[in-house]
Amino acid sequence: MTRPHPSHARPLLLGLALLLAGTAVLLHSGTTAPRPGSARAGAPSAAAHPAPPAAPASRPAPHADGQSTATPRDRPTQTGPAGSPAADLDQVPGDQPVSGDGPAGDYAIQQLLDRTTPTDLPPATARRLTELATRIWTAETTGTGRTQWPGYFTPDPLRAPYHDVRVQAAVAHQHGRSAGCAEVRLVWAGADAAGEFRDGRTARVLLELHHNEWRPIR
After folding, report:
1. Where is composition skewed (Polar residues) in this entry (predicted)?
2. 102-217 adopts what CATH topology?
3. pLDDT band at 85 (very low <50, low <70, confident <90, very high)
4. Beta bridge mates, 217
5. Which residues of 110-122 are buried (b: 16+ CB within 10 A; e: fewer)?
6. How many whole angstroms separate alpha carbon 87 and alpha carbon 205?
7. Number of Cβ atoms within 10 Å of the Cβ of 141
8. Has residue 46 got a pLDDT over 70?
9. What is the DSSP letter of 29?
10. pTM for the complete prediction?
């Protein structure tokens, strides 16, 4: 025989049924309707694919030949002073030693002249002519010793003589087609009447063979 349920069990069963029904509704709504702001199904996530890092700043491209474009520094230009007592001043070749080396640089200047404009005369003759031209040029610039060549120098005293004159280098060549005529190119240094000292000046002395003796000519 079936035993009847107590009367107080009915409200309990009704509440349990309502609780189960509400839970089912909540579960159903959570699986079918997306929450606001949620990502669309199948769309890639921004967090899963972060933006690539910024490219580093590019450096300036080096020069095509890898060399500096700075202009190399120019050598000082050697010139003769205005009103110097010898006409026909020329420029020494541009690769001469830098001005201001003093007597220590004379050997380098001589080597430069011998290399760029070598003598075409026999060594003994070339040496004799350069020594003679050195004495003549010293008389030309300082006034001392001019009496040795009376036909070359005027008797008037030199108005603005140089002092501390030094011939730094010299080279002799045959002048023209005549074997009895020569030219000596000189590089010299000295101080003018105002006391300004310069080196690297250039000049020339013409010489002519007369009765087996070399004499200066204008």
Report:
1. 66-81
2. Nuclear Transport Factor 2; Chain: A, (3.10.450)
3. very low
4. 206
5. bebbeeeeebebe
6. 10
7. 23
8. no
9. H
10. 0.57
